[in-house]
Amino acid sequence: MRLTLLDDLRALDRARAGGDVLAGTITAVLLVPQALAYALLAGLPPEMGLYASILPPVVYALLGSSRTLAVGPVAVAAAMVASALHGWAGDDAQRIVEGAVILAGLSGLFLLAMAALRLGWLTHFISHPVLSGFVTGAAIFIVGTQLRGLFGIEAGDGVHFIERMAHIITHWSTGNVLTCVFGLSSLVLLMVARSPLIRMLMRWGVSCEAALTTSRLAPLVIVVLATLLSALIGAQGQGVETVGAVAGQLPGFSLSAWGAEGWWLLAPSALLIALVGYVESVSVARTLAMRRREAVDADRELIGLGGANIAASLFGAMPAAGGFSRSMVNFDAGARTQLAALVTAGWVLLITLFFGGLLAALPYAVLSAIIVVAVWQLIDFSALRHTWRFDRGDGFAQALTIVGVLVVGIEAGLMLGVAAALAIFLYRTSRPHIAVIGRLHGTEHFRNVYRHVVETWPELLMVRIDESLYFASSPRIQAELERLVSRHDPRLSDVVLVLSGVNAVDASGVEMLEVFHSELERLHIRLHLAEVKGPVQDQLNHSALPAALGPNRIHLSAQAAVESIVPAG
C-alpha cells in the first residue's frame, strides 16, 4: 500500500510546504479550544481531547487517502461517547475514562475489520435523510446538554434530552450568576466573531483572508482572556466550575484498557460511533477532494480512521474522526498535503506539554459556549422541509430520526431512523410499478398504454416490471400478472415480460416466474422474457426456467419479441 503522505512529501516544494505549515498552525488554533470542549461534552478530562488531537491525526496522515481531512475529536462522536458511557460507567470517573479508551479501540477494530472484509457498503444503510436528521437531532441534543454549563446549573442524572431539559427547568434557580456572565458573554463574542466581525473588518478595508483568519482566532483569544479574568477574580472560589489542572504530559503506551471488562457491552455503541464517524469523515473528504479533482479511496479511509482510533486507544485518548469545520478551515487556509496535520499535531503537543497547566482557571461555561456555537450550524430544518416536499417517506424517516434522538437517545434514535428507512424501502419495493406496454407507431419504442397512444395486439400481452424480483416484491408481482392475464382479450396466446427494469432476482423471484409459467401453460399461453440484463440472465441460468422456455422465448428486445410472435406486425 503506497502512503499518500510520503509521496506528497517527496514532491513538496517550499511554497506548498509553507502553505501546509500555515494551514496546520491555523487549524491548531481552532482545534485546541474544540478539543477541550469536546472532551467536556463527552464527560472526559480535558486532556483526553488534546490527546485525540496529537497521535490520531499523525496516524491518519500516514494511512488515509485524503490530503486535507483534519482528524481529531468531533462533536457528534463526543455526544455518542457520553451517551454510551452514562449507563455503563455511571459517575465513576476512572471507569468513564476507561470506557472512552475502550470505545476508541473498538471503533478502530470495527473500521479495520470493515476494511479487511471490504464492508464499507454497510454505511450505505445510513441514508442521507437519516444522517441529516441524526446530525440535526444530535446538534439539538448537544446544545441542550450545554445549557447547564452555560448557566452553572447543578448537574442532573438524566440521559435523554427531555430529562435534561426538565432538570434544567426545575433547577433554574441553582444557576450561578458569574457563570452566566462568562457563558453568555463568550457566546455573544463567538457569534459576533463569525459573519458580523468578518463583514465589519472587510468594510474597514481588511482583506477577506485576513478577516477570516481573525475570525478563526476568536475562540482561542476568548479562551485566553476568560482564563486570565477567571484567575484574576478567583472565579472558582465564587462557585464557577473550572477546567482544573490539565495533565502537562502525554500518556504512555498502555494495554490496560484492552484487558478490562466491558468490551462486549460497549461493542454496539462503538460500532455506531465507527459508522457515523466514517460516514461523516468520508463525506467531508470527498467534498474537499472534488474541489481539487483529487481522489479519496473509501477502503483507505477505513484503514486510516481505524488506525487513528487504535492509536487513540493505546495512548489514552477519546475516539477521533474527521471534523467538518476543522477540515474546511484546513482546506481554506491552503493545506495541500497531510503535512498540515503533522504541524497541527505538533502545536497541540507543545500546548499540552507546556501550557496545559495554565488552563486550570478556564470556566467550563466558556467551553460550553464554544460547543453551542460550533454545533448550532449543524441544525438544519430546511433540509427536512426539502426532503418532506420531495418525498414523504424519506421526510418521515428524517423527522423520526430527529425525534428519536431527542426522545429515546442518540444511539437508539439513529437505529430507529435506519430501521424506518429500511422499512420504507422494503414497503416501496414490495409494491413495484408494473406497466402494460405497447409500441409507439412507426418506432421500436414501447411505452405504458395509459400514458401514450400505442399499438397493441389482442393475442399478445406485454408487461414491463420496474423492480427487482425478490422475496418482498414477488407476491405482489405474481398477483398483478395473474390479474392482467385474467382481464386480457380471450384470444391471448403469448405473454412477454420485459425485464429491462429488473436488476436482480433471488430464489423467491425465480420460483414466482416458474409458478407463473406453469399457470400459463395450463391455460395454453406461452411465456416470453425480453431485455433481460446479463447479471439477471446469469442468475436465471441456475434455474430450470430458461430450459423450460427454450431459447426462442428469451428475446434480446421487446421489438424482437413482437416480431417473433406477431410476424405481420
Strand content bin? 5-15%
Helix content: 55-70%
Distance between the termini: 60 Å
| Gyration radius over CA | 30 Å
| Strand segment tally | 9
* Overall average residue pLDDT: 89
What structural category do the secondary elements indicate?
A: mainly alpha
Domains (count): 2
Overall 3D geometry?
elongated
What is the overall number of helices?
24
Largest sheet: 7 strands, mixed
Contiguous low-pLDDT stretches (5 residues minimum) are none
Question: Main attributes?
Answer:
mainly alpha, Transcription Regulator spoIIAA, two-stranded antiparallel ribbon, 2 domains, 569 residues
Describe the structure.
- With 569 residues, the chain is mainly α.
- It has two domains: 4-423, no CATH class; 434-565, STAS domain (Transcription Regulator spoIIAA, 2-Layer Sandwich), CATH 3.30.750.24.
- It is built from 24 helices and nine strands.
- Strands 3, 4, 5, 6, 7, 8 and 9 form a seven-stranded mixed β-sheet that branches. A two-stranded antiparallel ribbon has the order 1-2.
- Strand 7, helix 21 (507-522) and strand 8 (526-530) form a beta-alpha-beta unit.
- Helix 2 crosses helix 11 (208-233) and helix 2 crosses helix 15 (339-354).
- The longest helix is centred in the middle third of the chain and has 29 residues, at 263-291.
- The radius of gyration is 30 Å and the shape is elongated.
- It starts with a helix and ends with a helix.
